Amino acid sequence: MIVDERIYTLKIGKIKVYLELYERMGLAVQTKILGHMVGYFHTEVGPLNQIVHLWAYDSFEERSRRRAILAADPEWMAYVKEMRPLLEKQENKILVPAPFSPLGEMA
């Protein structure tokens, strides 16, 4: 199992707008295609104006396959077109759970 950690730094003051847009246009299509959302968060302390979301996959290959399907989906592309102006920066990391992690037990 792997976890894809995605961090989006938004323009100042755009958390509420982003979350409303994501819930209305992005959530259903992304969860349908990507599958296992571990969590979706926004920051309150530390680096501000950030959205952090985590997605679990059986393998890197599964992640690549699912993300390619998402990138080709017209509903997703419509969402991205609306969302992109809110972004300042994107980051992502692939995380591998330690053997004793509760997520490690799902593998």
Description:
- The structure is a single chain.
- This protein is α+β, with helices and mostly antiparallel strands.
- The protein is 40% helix and 31% strand.
- It has helices at 15-34, 60-72, 74-83, and strands spanning 2-10, 36-42, 50-57, 87-95.
- A 4-stranded antiparallel β-sheet has the order 2-3-1-4.
- Helix 1 packs across helix 2 (60-72) and helix 1 (15-34) runs antiparallel to helix 3 (74-83).
- It starts with a strand and ends in a 12-residue tail after the last strand.
- The mean pLDDT is 95.
What topology does this entry show?
Blueprint (H helix, E strand, L loop, with lengths): L1 E9 L4 H20 L1 E7 L7 E8 L2 H13 L1 H10 L3 E9 L12
Antiparallel strand pairs: 1-3, 1-4, 2-3
Based on CA atoms alone, the radius of gyration comes out at 14 Å
Q: Tell the overall outline.
A: globular
* Tally of helical segments: 3
Q: Tell me, what is the CATH class?
A: Alpha Beta
Strand content: 25-35%
Termini distance? 5 Å
Sequence of secondary-structure elements:
EHEEHHE
CATH-defined topology = Alpha-Beta Plaits
Query: What helical percentage do the residues reach?
Result: 40-55%
User: What's the number of extended β-strand segments?
Assistant: 4
Sheet with the most strands: spatial strand order: 2-3-1-4
Question: Low-confidence stretches at least 5 residues in length (pLDDT < 50)?
Answer: none
The description of the largest β-sheet is: 4 strands, antiparallel
The number of domains is 1
CATH architecture type: 2-Layer Sandwich
Give the integer mean of the pLDDT values. 95
The chain-level structural class is alpha+beta
